[in-house]
Design goal:
With about 250 residues, this protein is of the alpha/beta class. Helices cover about 40% and strands about 25% of the residues. Strands 6-7-8-3-9-10 form a six-stranded mixed sheet, sandwiched between helices. Strands 2-1-4-5 form a four-stranded antiparallel sheet, covered by helices on one side. Bound molecules: adenosine-5'-triphosphate and magnesium ion.
Length: about 250
């Protein structure tokens, strides 16, 4: 039997008395690109942090390839870390490491490659993402914000993950840089057969990147479907969320 790559069942998470995620259910299949949309504070980052084990859900189950992750156990982080790369909302590169060192870190220290092979993997990864060699030995603070995001993606791909999670990859970028990033995400996921979850506020990006879209609203998954069906939704919150996009196109 073929299991979904990721399955989330009845996930619930609160901080103190405040319910942040409530009865969340969804599946993502091998090679599928799921985009999660929703307003600021709707719980998108908390959801993905639960999936990778950075936060412990209060209830519910998460399965990777049919294996249930032990919630409330530190093993969760270990299991997830072996198959999932997470690109944080703020890129989160190591400031004191050069671009190539940032990218070779995963292959060397997570995948236990020797230094020479790890560097070779980093070089391949940088070439795939069109990072010009003049940047390879620079430090994150010397790069533009869009290049930092591309380096963060190269770093995430270099460990050859089964699953990659991008938290707001294009926020703060101009339209050209954001389109380039969407294209790189789409191509990388397709070429490497990676399963991807991308969080975004940007409906244009969502429509480019997604095979399927899920919308969170106040901690609930209120809509999911194909990108082509999003504009047809009659759900009041979905319509409210996509209205600014519809009026700009
Ligand atoms: N560690 C935490 N402790 C307490 N509350 C938290 C914590 N992390 C997130 N929250 C709260 O959970 C809610 C959802 O946060 P989350 O970061 O998931 O939103 P988001 O949908 O990713 O928003 P944005 O689009 O602004 O990134 C917010 O109200 C936030 O303040
Ligand atoms: Mg967030």
């Amino acid at each position: 039997m073929k299991y979904p790559r990721i399955e989330v069942r009845e996930l619930k998470k609160s901080f103190d008395e405040t319910v942040i995620l409530d009865h969340i259910n969804f599946k993502v299949h091998l090679g599928e690109s799921l985009v999660i949309i929703g307003a600021s504070g709707s719980g998108k980052s908390v959801l993905t942090k639960c999936i990778v084990g950075l936060l412990k859900p209060d209830n519910g189950d998460i399965f990777l390839d049919g294996h249930r992750l032990e919630t409330n156990s530190s093993d969760n982080t270990t299991v997830a870390a072996n198959s999932i790369s997470y690109v944080f909302q703020n890129s989160a590169l190591f400031d004191s490491l050069s671009v190539i060192e940032n990218i070779s870190f995963g292959p060397q220290f997570l995948n236990k490659q020797n230094e020479k092979d790890a560097n070779e993997i980093a070089r391949e990864s940088m070439k795939k993402l069109d990072i010009h060699p003049k940047f390879w030995f620079m430090y994150p603070k010397e790069l533009s914000s869009s290049l930092r995001k591309i380096v963060a993606i190269a770093r995430a791909l270099a460990v050859k993950p089964k699953i990659i999670i991008f938290d707001e990859p294009s926020t703060g970028l101009d339209i050209r840089a954001s389109h380039k990033l969407d294209y790189l995400i789409r191509e990388s996921v397709k070429n490497e057969n990676i399963t991807a979850i991308t969080i975004t506020h940007d409906i244009n990006s969502a429509l480019h990147i997604a095979d399927s879209i899920a919308m969170l609203h106040e901690g609930k998954l209120i809509w999911s479907g194909k990108p082509s069906d999003l504009k047809k939704s009659s759900h009041v919150e979905v319509r409210r969320f996509i209205k600014p996009f519809l009026s700009s196109t």
